[in-house]
Amino acid sequence: LHQLYQGVVKHLISWLQQALGEAELDARCARLPPNHNLRHFSKGISTLSHVTGKEHQDICRILMGLVIGVPLPGGAACTRLIRATRAILDFLYLAQYPTHTSHTLRQLDNALLAFHANKGIFVDLGIREHFKLPKLHSLEHYRRSIELFGTTDNYDTQYSERLHIDFTKDAYRASNRKDEFAQMTTWLERKERVERHDKFVSWCLRGSPTPVRVSHIASLLPSPHPQSHIVMTKHPSVKAVSFDDVTLRYQAPFFRDALTRFVVTCNQPALSPAQVELAAGGVYFNFRNLPVYHKVKFDIHDTQGLGTSTSITQDVAHVRPARKGKHGTDVPGRFDTVLVRRQPGDMERDLVSGFRIAQLRVVFQIPEKAKAHLFPLITPESRPHHLAYVEWFAPFGSAASNPNPDHGLYRLRRSIRRGARLASIIPVDHIERACHLFPDFGPVAPREWTTNNVLEECPSFFLNTFLDRYMYMSIHP
Known about the structure:
Elements: H1 4-20, H2 22-30, H3 53-67, H4 79-95, H5 102-118, H6 120-124, H7 134-137, H8 142-149, H9 157-173, H10 180-205, H11 216-220, E1 230-231, E2 238-242, H12 243-248, H13 255-267, H14 273-280, E3 289-293, E4 295-300, E5 313-320, E6 323-324, E7 330-331, E8 334-335, E9 337-341, H15 351-354, E10 355-365, H16 368-374, E11 386-392, E12 411-413, E13 416-417, E14 420-421, E15 423-427, E16 431-435, E17 437-439, H17 454-457, E18 460-463, H18 469-475
Antiparallel strand pairs: 1-4, 2-3, 3-10, 4-5, 5-8, 6-7, 9-10, 9-16, 10-11, 11-15, 12-18, 13-14, 17-18
Helix pairs in contact: 1-3, 1-4, 3-4, 4-5, 9-10, 13-14
């Protein structure tokens, strides 16, 4: 916390503001598309004062997208500045891995070497005269510390600072401020006894079940019956939305055609694309309205697949049209981008071969009464449940989408066919999680772009691999 976020990152942000200009960085901050895991700095980052470690962490999630393409003073090439920024961010995220191997430790060393190889740009720009900073020097000892004492989450100061509230501040407030140490100790002991008793009562209310002993090896094995990582609300956000409203309000112009193709493909998966188009003309919908959902939640489990992390992080994708607020104000729509698994059921984690980016437009269900009519060849339990109409981005793997050699991000463009965006309907279970895209602003961010329209106006993007630790670990295992 204090060495990286409040030390190195604090210096790096200051150097970038001097090199690139506060006005341009702030303009880019205000125009980034929203995401559940990101803080939106509507006024930029230059006006922040007394920046906390959490705020520095939030800035690191978007920092790479702010520096790409910004010209340097005097026409100097920005290659070394981008590489130095990327190296610090790589080191920061790699240092937070909950499990390390020889490969990840080599990546940690390479990130530090890359920073030292490119940090001279700040001297050339007149921002720094030297780099004799104690917290910057401390990065040299991270690999050795990890090898001696384990991963950094074992001795990260942010955990002890959080316990300082529970064990010190709350305990002190419970005392009379006189001879507080004895009172604080007594208060903590009583609190622990109450918590233990509460767990005992809960165990009794469950019928006093016998604890199940599971060996350490068995706990590392994946569950033979994996649960869905999708969490949907019990009831839809809107119970009935007409086909016309789906087309207009949710900006899904090919929704009806996509749904007919989906129905044909589910019933006859062996058909060729030409046969699907021919059979789609015979599909009849005996309903006019659909239940629609405006939010999809995803459970993100242990990314490394080693069973060492039992915590589950929840991610959210929003998909809602523009509406009127309580006081008649216009509330813009929001259609998040997601990471879709190309082969359902395949646990391949490689980004290029395993996933594709799409933008959500509508999340819906087919009415139960209509499923028997549309899917007569499929058993009731196997019929599709929650579905999503998505607009696709070009798949990874093409020369244009290979990671950039300087900043390492994948460039993305929308898939266009005959002048229109390529769209289709997929089961929601195929979606892995939400993702975030950096707009390709160019030298100067267009001022007509906003956080609400940038996904529609910008022609190309970069995949934000620094969205969170889980996204970074998925792309850099």
